[in-house]
Amino acid sequence: MNVHVPSPPTKSAAEPARWAVWAAHLTTLVVLPSGLWRIAMVLGFPAGYTAAGFVPFETLGSKAWMLTLSVLCELVAFLTIGLVRPWGEVIPRWIPLIGGRRVRPMAVVAPAALGAVVLTALWANAPWWWTYPHEDMTPTGHLLVGILYQPMVLWGPLTAAVTISYYRRHRAAQRLASTA
C-alpha cells in the first residue's frame, strides 16, 4: 500500500546575515543578568536590598512573580532566535495540528516589530537608574542592580534589527518568487 507523505516545505528565504544571528542570540544574554538577580531574590538573597527593603520580596506571591517574570523574559527573548532559525519559517512538526506549515512572514514581523517598540520604550530609562532614589537598597546594591539592568536597553533595538533583517530576507524571497 503506497502512502503519500508530503515533503516538508523548503525554506523560502536566504540565510540570515551573521550579524543578525549574533544579535538574535545576544537578546537572550541581555535579559539574563536581571533574571539571575531576581532568581537570587527568590532564593532568599537580599541581592542589594536592606533588611527592611527586602521584606516585601519574601512573600510567596512576590517570589512567584519574580520567578515568572524571569522565565517569561527569557522565553520572549528566545523567540527572537526564531527570526534567524528555520522554526521562524516553518512551524516545527512536533506542534500538534499546525506542525509543518509555513509561517506567514507578516505574522512574525508584526508582533516582533511591536515587541521591539514596546521593549525599547520600556527600558529607555534604564541608563538613568542611578538618578532615581532607591532608599530600600544598600549603596552597593544600588550600583549592582543598575549595572545588571543596563543590558536591557539593548533588548528592543536588537529585536528591531533582527526583525528588519527577517523582513528584508522574506520580502526579497517573495519578489524573487513573483518574478519567476
From TrEMBL:
Which keywords accompany this UniProt record?
Answer: Membrane, Transmembrane, Transmembrane helix
Q: Where are the transmembrane segments?
A: 21-45, 65-84, 105-124, 144-167
Instruction: Provide the protein name.
Output: Transmembrane protein
